[in-house]
Amino acid sequence: MPSESRSGRPPTIHTVAARAGVSKSLVSLVLQNSPNVSAQRREAVLAAMAELGYRPDPVARSLVQRRTRTIGVVIDDLSNPWYVDLLHELRPVLHEHGLRPLLADGRTEPDAVNALSDLRVDGIALVGTPSPSAVAQVNELAGRLPVVVAGSREPRLATVDLVANDDDAGARAVTAHLVELGHRRIAHIVGEGEVGLIRRAGYEATMHGAGLAPETAQGDWTENTGIRVAMDLLRADDRPTAIFAANDLAAVGVLTAADELGLRVPEDLSVAGYDDDFFSRMRRIALTTVDPHITDVGREAGEVLVARLSGDTRSTATRLLRPTLVVRSSTGPAPGH
Amino acid sequence: MPSESRSGRPPTIHTVAARAGVSKSLVSLVLQNSPNVSAQRREAVLAAMAELGYRPDPVARSLVQRRTRTIGVVIDDLSNPWYVDLLHELRPVLHEHGLRPLLADGRTEPDAVNALSDLRVDGIALVGTPSPSAVAQVNELAGRLPVVVAGSREPRLATVDLVANDDDAGARAVTAHLVELGHRRIAHIVGEGEVGLIRRAGYEATMHGAGLAPETAQGDWTENTGIRVAMDLLRADDRPTAIFAANDLAAVGVLTAADELGLRVPEDLSVAGYDDDFFSRMRRIALTTVDPHITDVGREAGEVLVARLSGDTRSTATRLLRPTLVVRSSTGPAPGH
DNA sequence: CTGAAAGCGCTTACAG
DNA sequence: CTGAAAGCGCTTACAG
After folding, report:
1. Residues A95, B102: C-beta atoms closer than 8 Å
2. Which CATH number fits domain A67-165+294-320: 3.40.50.2300, 1.10.510.10, 3.40.50.740, 3.30.720.210?
3. For strand C, which nucleotides have at least one atom less than 7 Å from a protein CB?
4. What is the pLDDT of residues B155-172, one digit of tens each?
5. Best label site of A73, A314, B63, B130, fewest CB within 10 Å?
6. Which ranges of chain A does DSSP label H, i.e. alpha helix?
C-alpha cells in the first residue's frame, strides 16, 4: 500500500511536496492546473502524487473555498416513490458539475432546509410539495443560497426558481379526453397543495367549457384515500361514469374500488390519473394518465441550480414543461356510447 | 438580520468570543458542552451566539476532527424503486446519530465507492447488489472505512458487515407454498448475482425434496425480461402451472404474459414473486410474494454502521432476517385440484 | 515560474 | 476554570 505514509494518515500536499522536492504551493498549483508551472516540475509533482496515491482532501478545500460542492435535496416524502424518476435525472446533472446530493426527508425532518444550510450546502433542491416549515425556512434564506423547486408549484418566492409541468394543461387534456369519450358525469379527486388546486382548476374549466357540472371530492396523494373516496362516489345512485384522480396512486385506488364493487374498467367506469408513475405502465394497471416528463423536470432543475452556482443572476423564473396525455386501457367510451 | 456581521459573512467563534468578551477557546468549550466552564461565562457565550445567530461551521469541524458525519450510500440502481423502502428506514437511523446520507448511483457511477472515500465519508452503505467495480473498490479499502452491505449477499469480505434477508428460507417458503397447492410443474425465473443464485438454490432444494423436477429460466430483475421469459415458458406444450419469479418486478411481467396469452391467474396459472414491493400490494396486482422486511434491513444496516463508528470492533458478521411468506390472490390450487 | 506567509473556522493539548 | 498557541489540509494573494 503506497498510499499511506508511516504516520498512518493519508498523504497531503506536504507529503507530496517533500517527495517531489518542491514547495506546497507548487503542488497546489499543479492541482489546479495552473499554467504557471514548468513542465518539468509538473511532471515531478504528478509522479509523486501517483506514487503516494495522493487524493486531495475536499474538506480542507471546502473550508478555504467556502463551498462544499454539495446540494441539499429535500424530498417531500421519501416513502412516496414518485420522486424516484426525478432524482434519476437530477443526480447526473449535479454529478457532471462535481456536485453531490445530500438527502433529507422533508416530511420526517421539518428542519431540513435549515439543517442543510447549516451544513453549508451550495444550493438546495426542494422535490415535491414542500412542507410549510420548509417554505418558511426558504423564505428566511432570502436568496443567500440558490434554491430550486422541482415538481411542485409552490412556494412562488422571488428568490426561488421553479421547474414543474403545466398542471393546468395536463388536467385540461385528460378531462377533455374523457369528455370526448362521451362522458357527462366526470368526477375529480382533488390532490393536496397548490398542485392539487391547479389540476382541479384545469378540470373545472374544461367541464364548464363543455357545459358539464364539475363534481369534486377532496383526496390526497395516497392510494388508500383514493379507494375510500372512490367508494363513496361509486356507491351513489347517480354515480359518475368517469373519475379523474389527481395522481396515479389515487387512481390505482379508484381501480381497486371499482374491482371491489364489480364495476368493469373501462366498460362501466373510466379511470384516469396524473404523473405516469412507473406502475401505471404495468399492463395490469394500464392507466390513462398525464406524463409530466418528470425526468426532464429533474434535469432542468439541476441545470437551473448549476447555472445559479456559476453566477447566473437573472431574475428567478418558473419553467413549465408541456405534459403529454397518455391513453391506456383504463379509459373508454361512456356507457351507451 | 442579526445573523450577518458587517463583513457579510456568517459569524464565527471569533465573532462570538468578541461579543461575549471571552477567548475563542472558551466558545469552543461551550459548544462542546464542556463542564469546565463557569455558568456565568457559559450564559454570556450562549447569549452572544443567540444574538448573532451563530451556527458552527461543520466543514471546519470536519477538518480538525477528521470526520464528516456523512455516510456514502451507493444504490445499485437508482431507477429500480426497490431501494425506496430500505432508504426510508436507513436514513432516520443515521439522522439520529447526526449522520447524513450522501447518495451515489452504483450503476451510472462505477467509481462511486472511491469517490465517496475521497470525499472523506465516515462510512459506506452498499444498497442492493453491488457492481464488480464497487466490490473491487471496497476490497481495496481494506477496512479503513466501515462498510455495510444492505439487501444483498455479496461481497462477503472480512472487512464488510452484511444485512439481508434469508433468501434461501424465503425461496423455500414460496416454493413449498406452491407445492402444497398441488402444483407439480413449477418453473423459476432466476435473478442476477448472489441473491439470484441463493433463491434459486432454495427453490431447487424444495423441488427435489418434494420429488419434483426443477425448471429454471434465466432472467434478471426487470419486468420486461419477466414478460419475455414467461412467454417462452407458457407457450410450451407442457407449460408450468406455477411460476416463481426471483423478484416482484419480474413476477409482474409474468402476470402480463399470462394476460396476453389469455391465461387466468390463479385458475390457470399461479404466480409468485419475491420482495413484497409496494405495487405488489395493489389489489390489481395482489401478488403472492415473500416479504424480506426490507425496512428492517435498512434499519439494521444503519445500526451496524453507527456501532462501527462508535468503536465496535467485533469481527464483521452477516445478519439474515427471517422473511415472511405473503399469500395473495395470484396463487391458488393447481388446475384439477 | 516559484516559495514563504497568512488564513479558512474550528478543536485540541498545554500552560497557568 | 480560562487563554494563547498550534494545527487540521488546503488556497490565495504577495513577494521575488
Report:
1. no
2. 3.40.50.2300
3. 1-5, 7-13
4. 888 999 999 999 999 999
5. A314
6. 13-20, 24-31, 39-52, 58-65, 83-96, 112-118, 132-141, 167-180, 193-209, 223-235, 248-260, 294-309
